[in-house]
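Q: A small favour: would you put together sequence and structure tokens for a protein?
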Amino acid sequence: MAEAEMTAHMNAAGQLPTLLDRLDRQVRGLQSASRIGKNDHALRVLDAARRVLQHKDGLPALRQRAGLMEEAGLFSGTDWGRPAQLLPNLVKHTLTHASPQTITLEAMSLLRFLVVAKGEHATPELSPAQAEQFLTQVLSFNLDRLLGQGLDEAQRHAQNALIPAIDQLMRYLLQEVGTDGVLDRLTDEIWRIMAQRPLQVDHVKEMILQIASALQTGTALAADAHRGADRLISALFGPTALSREDPGIPAYVDRLSRADERTVQEEAYALARAMHDTGLVSDYHASFLRWAIDADQTKVLPDALGLSSTGLDALRCYEALVRALVDVAIQPGTAQAVYGLALMLERGILYSPPVAPSLWRLLETSLTEECICALEATCGTALPARTHLIAGLIMFLGQPLGVGQGNNPTCQSARALSMWALNDPDYLLWLIAQVARRDRLVLHFEGEPLDTATLPPGLATSALLDADPISVLLVPHLDRAYAEMGRRCVGRPEDPHRWVNPELHGWWVGRDFHIAVDVATGALKHYESFLR
């Protein structure tokens, strides 16, 4: 059974009791094992614990058994046997590069620290305060996991299904330990990530919500932990005077309808300022745009989007299209698309002859059932799949350099999508139209057509669940085409990228190809000419 299928199988509602029963049997076997047989039984416990760890509801059950596992001797004879001497800065490396058994052992050690910190278990030489401090430091060193910053290609491929399990573990620890001691570093990391203006910010918004909760309940310990946090919180939950206390969307719209012209103008300025300052968009911003159009207050749209003269000209030329895009795609659940809309207008790409007609055509396109299912699996069902698709496209066209691949081994596809959104948006729109209407792409390799509907899966063997809507639709097809191009290069004497990259990415990729490595031996060759 494939790893992805195994994970889905274990996550079935009736599987957790079976997995826990097996784990308990293995723990009892470890308890009664002789000193010589401890190691074999410990490996069996780790194998059973790994399966529970991968279950979406497995962490509380493992937490309940962490103390018992330690008493049974799971950590005996290992580096984890003396918890007071463990170093928190080494945990990240272990969780990233170690074998599945070692990763599981590290995860159980972290849960052991948690139960000690909460007073649920006692360990010699480790006080609850020490355990809590250790976990706080571990969380600080693993902020990338908390904020959804994926691992690199090799790590992603090596860890397979343990990646989401460890990410879930980190979020669970943060929820249990709280943000005390990590607020300052967490806030700095959020600002660093948002400076790159990524398309996907859901993890960032979740962390800002955690920070807001900590500050509101007074659990933040250090005064300097507030540095930068207030601006992030207000940008999401109270960017303007009328929304400062986070009154909710209906109350905010009611206040807008009763506000005078000057107040509405100030709201527009404040929303644009918060958006461009942080890269985050509040749901109030989306509601403001929809209200402005419905109330025939479109004169405030340029200020609400923070447009320069370039963006203003584009808005005036294509106001009907912008209205249609807002109507379909800009909702409180897709507020981040407001930022994409502003940047798309600033880029001036609507002046490119094919772009505006392609957008109009896509607005009228009915999605295939396969596309709807894929989008709903990733984005949920609260809003129509077409809303998520158009919102994702607006963000793509506005922020072409913000594309990420998530925890998916599809770097070539992500790179191609980013390049097309930047250099040839009408080609990107053509690809989206193909998939939206027919759930297939027809590309070409050295003059031969490649129909992705007939090709086997590439590196992305399962659905993309942590990617933007455009990637969710296109990457599986691009990945199949890329893999097929690679298969057709088998047996050629040089690196297959020499032929694949120009064919997949288009004429922007140069036909000259230089490599300083002998593909057959892995040794350097012609290094001096490579450096020219």
Summary: Residues 1-10 have pLDDT under 50 and may be disordered. The first helix runs from residue 3 to 10.
